[in-house]
Amino acid sequence: MSKKLRDIPVTVIQDDGEYEEIHLYSKHKKIYPRWVNGLFNRWRILFVVITQLFFYGMPWIQMNGRQALLFNLNEHIFYIYGFVFLPQDFIYLTALLLASAIGLFAWTTAGGRLWCGYACPQTVYTEIFLWIEKWVEGDRMARIKLDTAPLSARKIRLKVSKHSIWILLSLWTGFTFVGYFTPIMDLWAEASRFNLSAWETFWVCFYGFATYGNAGWMREQVCKYMCPYARFQSTMFDADTLIISYDAERGDPRGSRKKETDYKAAGLGDCIDCTVCVQVCPVGIDIRDGLQYECIGCAACIDACDEIMDKMQYPRGLIRYTTENALEHKYPERDIIKKITRPRVMMYVLVLIIILGITVGSLVMRKPIKVNISRDRVAMVREADDGWLENSYRLQIQNADEKAHSYIITTDGLPNSRTIVEGSGQIFVEATASQDIGVRVQVEPGKAGPGGHEMHFIITATDNPAITAREKSSFIGR
């Protein structure tokens, strides 16, 4: 093909019968966001600092002699701030995912894409990479001139410096990410000796490459074309959702003018058509065209416009956080906060409270012991030397506590029965470990007829009777 698909126009018929040619794909143009100061920029900096202090710092925090937050996939154990979760606790992961989804729905319905603009990892790392780019190459015009300038020693030096810092930060990000799954102290010791395993090396490089590619190269394209949140957010928006909007009623007609010009007499609005709001946008949209799915709600355009309004001595707020209904004067903007408690949002909040309440209640009542029972399938029932009927079981006791415990095993539900445990009768289990133990239950002849008889195993910690598990089983008689 002599022509790329993206260059082939498609003719569409509009509602008025006119024909218009559109392109299926638009050619990507590099965006050079301009640095902006202001209230919302300071908020973005604060969220970048908070999220990255947590991400990079948390793996190094120790609790009970081990990493406070560790997802140990090799041993199938998750350590989360003193709690120990085993594979049987998968229900808590389900609850976390449900709570996150419902929380996102509630947040989006009320606050729009504030998450995207301030705390989303893609936004945060893009912001960090842009800081590095500005520090090395300069602000918007300096970067444009550098990219359009012919190759030179200075250009090579600046480009190599920028990408070197990006790569180092990306690799450290990948290392930290792996540190949540492999104890980071051990990981650091192995890395310092260049002795990382193949899988650890792969994931450090893979996550580092993803960070470098997404934040350094793809940037807004991730938000536009890859992130599903941008696509389905419209289903959660309503006319009372907080959005960033340009006040066309106040700003139009647009036009440049001198500061001392009586622009109202000239028939102009407050917008001086400086396009600074477009220059600072990290996704390259013009907010004056209305709400667009590409907008991530970062408010850089608000800071930029407010700065221009201050210079022109016009009132701030030509571009602002508002709602569609407030913009259409269906209620005053001071009532926006009241609309948060509308039924749709409160329904999400109620569901979220129920999920969190059940989860927290379950965690509070959770006992740090898990027991799995399996029966001897070869001989369901046999007769002991003294004539008693006997069933054999295998119990796996998992200690989901940060300290070791000794346990005793008893049974109830069977009259005239006795329980025989392998060894000394007490089972010692190390912290966050498991122990298999054989148990025989014997019943006096004539006390257990043919078929199954319900019984329970009771496993209790000798040093803390509150740690106990009661598991249902059955005794086969004859």
Discrete helix count: 15
Number of strands: 18
What is the count of structural domains?
A: 2
The fraction of residues assigned to DSSP E strands is: 15-25%
Question: What's the N-to-C terminus distance?
Answer: 82 Å
Outline the fold blueprint.
Layout: E1 9-13, E2 19-23, H1 39-57, E3 62-63, E4 66-67, E5 69-72, E6 77-80, E7 83-85, H2 90-111, H3 114-118, H4 121-137, H5 140-148, H6 153-178, H7 184-192, H8 198-218, H9 220-226, H10 228-232, E8 243-246, H11 248-251, H12 276-279, H13 300-312, E9 319-322, H14 324-327, H15 343-365, E10 369-375, E11 382-383, E12 389-399, E13 405-412, E14 417-421, E15 426-429, E16 434-443, E17 451-461, E18 468-477
Antiparallel strand pairs: 1-2, 3-4, 5-6, 6-7, 8-9, 10-12, 11-12, 12-16, 13-15, 13-17, 14-16, 17-18
Helix pairs in contact: 1-4, 2-15, 4-6, 4-8, 6-8
Describe this protein's structure:
It holds the Pfam family FixG_C. Keywords: 4Fe-4S, Electron transport, Iron, Iron-sulfur, Membrane, Metal-binding, Transmembrane, Transmembrane helix, Transport. InterPro entries: 4Fe4S_Fe-S-bd (IPR017896), 4Fe4S_Fe_S_CS (IPR017900), Cyt_c_oxidase_cbb3_FixG (IPR014116), Electron_Trans/Redox (IPR051684), FixG_C (IPR032879), Helical_ferredxn (IPR009051), Ig-like_fold (IPR013783). There is one protein chain. The chain has 478 residues and is of the alpha+beta class. It folds into two domains: 34-366, no CATH class; 369-477, Immunoglobulin-like, CATH 2.60.40. 39% of the residues lie in helices and 21% in strands. The strands form six sheets. Strands 10, 11, 12, 14 and 16 form a five-stranded antiparallel sheet that branches. A four-stranded antiparallel sheet has the order 15-13-17-18, with no helix packed on it. A three-stranded antiparallel sheet has the order 5-6-7, with no helix packed on it. Helix 4 packs antiparallel against helix 6 (153-178), helix 4 crosses helix 8 and helix 6 packs across helix 8 (198-218). The radius of gyration is 32 Å and the shape is elongated. It starts with 8 loop residues before the first strand and ends with a strand. Residues 1-6 have low confidence and may be disordered.
